[in-house]
Write a structure and sequence with these properties.
By secondary structure, this protein is an all-alpha fold. The chain contains 20 helices and two strands. β1 and β2 form a beta hairpin.
């Protein structure tokens, strides 16, 4: 590719670079602020486990002078946080850097999905829709697995659309398996990502068995690694850190999962962006369908594929958490992100290329609003980090600190 072609391609994708810049501004969190490790014990154990591994070679946390296994397996700490601490230093907040990178990448994947279905309008609206999801932007600033897994899901969705459009190579199925395995290592429930790819493999006219094996192999390796870690750490493959730290309710399936947990969880979903995205998706598609023009004919198949991916991947993940004893909107981030892209793509079909020039006004305005929003609404002080710094400053190195 010569320089002229590269320059032309960059200009063609100007909306992507603008949206990535908006995402960086909106999702940025300083390492010092992130070192507050607000989510207890999750972000604390992810970070401290990675730092202990870097310092001592052992994945553990220190509690009352004792080395104990964290609640979570080491995969997120090892693959995402450890490189950041090794490269940037052992400030616990440095773990936010790769989380931010993955969060911004998720916006890029949403743009690519939208563009594949409904050109520039769908690309811009899909990316902005994901960025506008409060759950996405909130948890992107925490050292947590939720938004990185959502970003991996969007990457897998983009790959799935390529597979369904005819790119049925064995390498594509293997790459899909790697994405599924990586997300599953971070959050096991994301194994549901394999379902649409397995369907695509079975719908192939030839080499179905080989494609399925190549797809599932990385997932089996990931499952084997987790079972081996559990066995070597907790004595049996079927027990994990949840059983070690929270025997109640983890040792009692009837307490962990129950129909009684569903009503409050479903009521909580009504106050998220999910109902809005569902209504917008259906309304926009019905309007596009009513036209029955070339746009409808060209978009019908990829939009259906996107819907299948969201239904087979995100819906099982959300259903799992509907009956789970602990409720939080972050558990439904896969469904929220998928529906945001679906709504953005559907509205993009409705808008089409008639208002292509308007994005050159809209995106700079959004960038300006992102800057204003970040700098006119200061973050709350990281009190936990401030307290830790003061304790370190005013106590002897061998002091024992008791806190609650």
């Amino acid at each position: 590719m010569n320089l002229f072609a590269l320059r032309s391609r960059l200009l063609d994708n100007w909306s992507l670079w603008a949206l990535l810049l908006i995402a960086v501004v909106w999702l940025y969190q300083s390492p010092y602020q992130a070192s507050n490790l607000d989510v207890i014990p999750d972000s604390v154990e992810y970070s401290v486990g990675a730092l202990q591994l870097l310092d001592t070679g052992r994945y553990e946390i220190i509690v009352q002078g004792r080395a104990l296994p964290p609640r979570y397996p080491p995969w997120f700490s090892v693959t995402v946080l450890l490189p950041a601490y090794w490269l940037l230093g052992e400030n616990p907040g440095n773990g936010i850097v790769p989380v931010t990178v993955l969060s911004v990448a998720g916006i890029g994947f949403a743009w690519a999905i939208g563009r594949r279905i409904s050109s520039t309008a769908g690309a811009v609206l899909s990316a902005l829709a994901v960025l506008a999801v409060p759950t996405y932007s909130t948890w992107a600033t925490k050292v947590m697995t939720d938004v990185p897994c959502a970003a991996l899901m969007l990457a897998a969705c983009l790959l799935y659309l390529r597979l369904r459009s005819g790119a049925h190579s064995t390498a594509s199925f293997f790459l899909a398996g790697v994405l599924v395995a990586l997300a599953t290592l971070f959050r096991p429930v994301f194994a549901a990502m394999v379902l649409p790819f397995l369907l695509a493999a079975l719908l192939k006219r030839e080499a179905r068995f080989r494609s399925a094996i190549v797809l599932l192999f990385p997932l089996f390796v990931a499952a084997g690694a987790t079972l081996f870690y559990n066995a070597s750490t907790f004595g049996t493959p079927t027990r994990n850190g949840y059983h070690f730290w929270t025997a109640v309710p983890s040792d009692y399936p009837a307490l962990t999962f129950s129909l009684a947990y569903a009503p409050p969880t479903l009521r909580g979903l009504l106050f998220t962006a999910l109902p809005f995205f569902i209504v917008i998706s259906i309304a926009a598609w019905l309007l596009v369908r009513a036209r029955m023009n070339e746009t409808y004919a060209a978009a019908r198949r990829p939009l259906l594929d996107l819907t299948i991916f969201v239904v087979l991947t995100a819906v099982p993940i959300s259903l799992f958490h509907v009956f789970y004893f602990f409720s939080n909107d972050r558990f439904h981030l896969a469904l929220l992100s998928g529906m945001a892209v679906l709504a953005g793509s559907a509205v993009g079909l409705l808008v089409g290329e008639r208002f292509a020039g308007i994005w050159k006004l809209v995106l700079p305005a959004v960038l300006l609003l992102a800057f204003l929003g970040r700098f006119t609404a200061p973050e709350p002080p990281p009190n936990r980090r401030i307290a830790a710094d003061r304790v370190r400053e005013f106590t002897p190195t061998d002091a024992i600190v008791i806190s609650r």
